[in-house]
């Protein structure tokens, strides 16, 4: 499975494509289960990049754990949570609060 | 220290205005990311995993208290309350919004700072010995020459689009504290038999995926010829350096592929065309820049000896710190102080906004308003009266920056690694923290003695692992982090590249492996005075391999 991720142009914050927009957390990201869905996400990413909404657009591997979408690779897990050494920073900070 | 003249002010202000306009046009969608990326990189703005990152230049690592206070202000107002001091004596902020960067740059310009040429294929921040102007062993302060190089290299039209980035370091002492042999150009300021100042010139050092120790191409270059000779080197590199392959584009590859004799011949031939023309530095110009770096008026403070003696008796913490973090100054009543940014279990090189402000206050009160950033990611107070050392120590204790570990195993250089960096393949900071915690006991660290441990989270080697006595390189293997260990590297006047000791270790195994290496060293050293690096050079890798892997061979 794949999800679409990028960084928001204005502040660089990591975002994931979910439910017709760019979400600041990964959990509800739109999943692509097949090639056609991947192409659809890729086209959305290309358009958002061209529209100067986001930069560094990528399709990444994801899985669903307990009903929540999670990236597979460590790099993407860290993007989705924040630095592993400071849980007061990044997305995890808001979730802990 | 150096003060901007009218030209510098205008130049930096003009750049702030220009880049602010570029940011506005980017945010409004007038220019695309492809158009903007090279512009933002010229101004130190990267995109990392979580956000943008802004790298701010600290020329030759020198700061005054006003500048450090401004860095604290930026950390608090625009970032998340901290900054990260880097191995190139710079500072970077990890969370700035692009839309805030024009305001940050305007704030920086108000204290004579900027982020120009902290990225891109140009001549980067020129680095220097962090004890410059204070060290008892230097022939002269290397920073005036670093400043001359900074002025010459700033938006140099010929050298703004080199095959790859280009780094210059200068030291003024035999003992190299600026790692000059790991730089594209390394300059060793020295005196010839006639007592004249000049440089031994090294080229082609570097780390990254192909580490190389620089080669000396000239034993003595008169100071007046600094710019013409560097221009000759850059011209040869700009002409012949490879642009077809990013990984072979640094001058080290050109030196290696061309051969040092031939490249020296090319540089000397080019130099013959340049040496007696407008790049020759008039003595008056050198002396004028030098005057900016005139040492503060260090009045005699002979009461220091007695004060230190008494304070030692009253505080073991002070006594330990004095032994570890305070070094001799050329003036006997003074000392140079290392403020460790390597608290046990902390993130190497990070300082909070309030720590920066407090350190600025200490510098203003006790250190003639001067601070340095070392390439080992610590801060330095270069001139402190020995009589004031206890007061400085007490102030540092208050802000938790009095860890007595300079040059010990917990004084670790670490890149940001996969916790922040878009290029990283593994985390480095948590490994540094775990090793630091494992060796937390100061008594144990001092028993081990001088040991430079350096960690990089990818092959680009920002954490200098190749030249660590113990180096750790984090890579990704089959989806997991794997840590390769190199031994025997060194970044001083006897620079060497460490050797890979064997198979890598998982994140769970690496700290045990480091401990095993250290214990092996303790078991084989001739006496406590034999440092790790000297013992390694004497015995080679075999005993360490045996300790780390013998069990496996038998089991197999």
- The CA-CA distance between the termini of chain B, in Å, is 62 Å
- Based on CA atoms alone, the radius of gyration of chain B comes out at 23 Å
Please describe the biggest sheet of chain A, giving its number of strands, its sense, and whether it closes into a barrel: 5 strands, antiparallel
The CATH level-2 architecture of the largest domain in chain B is identified as 2-Layer Sandwich
Q: What is the level 1 CATH name of the largest domain in chain B?
A: Alpha Beta
Task: List unreliable stretches of 5+ residues of chain A.
Answer: none
* Integer average pLDDT of chain B: 97
Fraction of residues in H or I helices of chain B: 25-40%
What is the overall shape of chain B? globular
- Structural class call of chain A reads alpha+beta
Let me know the number of strands of chain B.
Answer: 21
* Sheet with the most strands: spatial strand order of chain A: 3-2-1-4-5
Number of domains of chain B: 4
Structure description:
The complex is a heterodimer of chains A (97) and B (556). With 97 residues, chain A is α+β, with helices and mostly antiparallel strands. Chain A has one domain (2-96). Chain A contains three helices and five strands; from the N terminus they run E-E-E-H-E-E-H-H. Chain A has a five-stranded antiparallel beta sheet with strand order 3-2-1-4-5, covered by helices on one side. In chain A, strand 2 (14-18) and strand 3 form a beta hairpin. The N and C termini of chain A lie far apart (30 Å). By secondary structure, chain B is α+β, with helices and mostly antiparallel strands. Chain B has four domains: 6-109, Sulfite Reductase Hemoprotein, domain 2 (Alpha-Beta Complex); 135-292, Sulfite Reductase Hemoprotein, domain 1, CATH 3.30.413; 304-398, Alpha-Beta Complex (Sulfite Reductase Hemoprotein, domain 2); 413-555, Sulfite Reductase Hemoprotein, domain 1, CATH 3.30.413.10. Chain B is 38% helix and 17% strand. Chain B has helices at 6-27, 33-42, 65-77, 101-109, 143-153, 226-240, 251-258, 260-274, 283-292, 304-314, 316-325, 353-366, 389-398, 429-438, 442-448, 510-524, 532-539, 542-555; strands spanning 45-47, 52-56, 62-64, 82-85, 91-93, 127-128, 168-171, 185-191, 197-203, 215-222, 326-328, 334-339, 350-352, 370-373, 379-385, 413-414, 453-456, 470-477, 480-487, 499-500, 505-506. In chain B, strands 16, 17, 18, 19, 20 and 21 form a six-stranded mixed beta sheet that branches. In chain B, strands 1-2-5-4-13 form a five-stranded antiparallel beta sheet. The longest helix of chain B has 22 residues, at 6-27. At the A-B interface, helix 2 of A face helix 14 of B.
